[in-house]
């Protein structure tokens, strides 16, 4: 008589959603983007400054960073450089209210996934996230 393996009655645990962190000095962005990210199926955390993000426990867990370019204190590109120096390979989507195609090209050449211009549509953010964090 051959024994069959017993099926587990416990449901399989689903993987935790990827953490996407938002760093922007604009409070309205910090309030609205995390809700949209959760609708897209991501975990989300928001920070008012680069320093606040760097001092958080979220740095090592963040898979993608939505990062404002111009902020008081450390700028978005400066944070990108600091993360590289510290050995954190986090995918970055820059956002800006004051930008142009030249700046976008420079940021992508330095390793950014994309650079979106405010106001950002849900569709363009979703497309950038799909590029940054492809799901199978």
Salient structural properties:
alpha/beta; globular; 136 residues; single chain
Q: What is the secondary structure topology, with strand pairs?
A:
Elements: E1 19-23, H1 27-39, E2 43-47, H2 50-54, E3 62-68, H3 76-85, E4 91-96, H4 101-109, E5 114-117, H5 122-132
Parallel strand pairs: 1-2, 1-3, 3-4, 4-5
Please list the strands of the largest sheet in the order they lie side by side: 2-1-3-4-5
- Low-confidence parts: none
Terminal Cα separation, in Å? 40 Å
Annotation, overall tally of beta strands: 5
Shape: globular
Biggest beta sheet attributes: 5 strands, parallel
The radius of gyration is 18 Å
The number of helical runs is 5
Q: Mean pLDDT, as a whole number? A: 90
Structural class given helices, strands, pairing? Answer: alpha/beta
Write the H/E string, N to C: EHEHEHEHEH
- Percent of residues in β-strands: 15-25%
> Which range best describes the helical content: under 10%, 10-25%, 25-40%, 40-55%, 55-70% or over 70%?
25-40%
């Amino acid at each position: 008589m051959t024994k069959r393996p017993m099926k587990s009655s416990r449901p399989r645990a689903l993987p935790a959603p990827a953490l996407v962190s938002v760093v922007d000095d604009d409070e309205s962005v910090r309030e609205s983007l995390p809700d949209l990210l959760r609708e897209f199926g991501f975990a989300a955390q928001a920070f008012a400054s680069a320093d606040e993000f760097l001092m958080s426990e979220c740095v090592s867990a963040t898979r993608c960073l939505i990062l404002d370019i111009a902020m008081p204190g450390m700028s978005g590109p400066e944070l990108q450089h600091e993360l590289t120096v510290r050995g954190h390979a986090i995918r970055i989507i820059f956002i800006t209210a004051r930008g142009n195609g030249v700046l976008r090209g420079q940021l992508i050449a330095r390793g950014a996934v994309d650079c979106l211009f405010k106001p950002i549509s849900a569709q363009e953010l979703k497309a950038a996230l799909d590029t940054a964090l492809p799901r199978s």
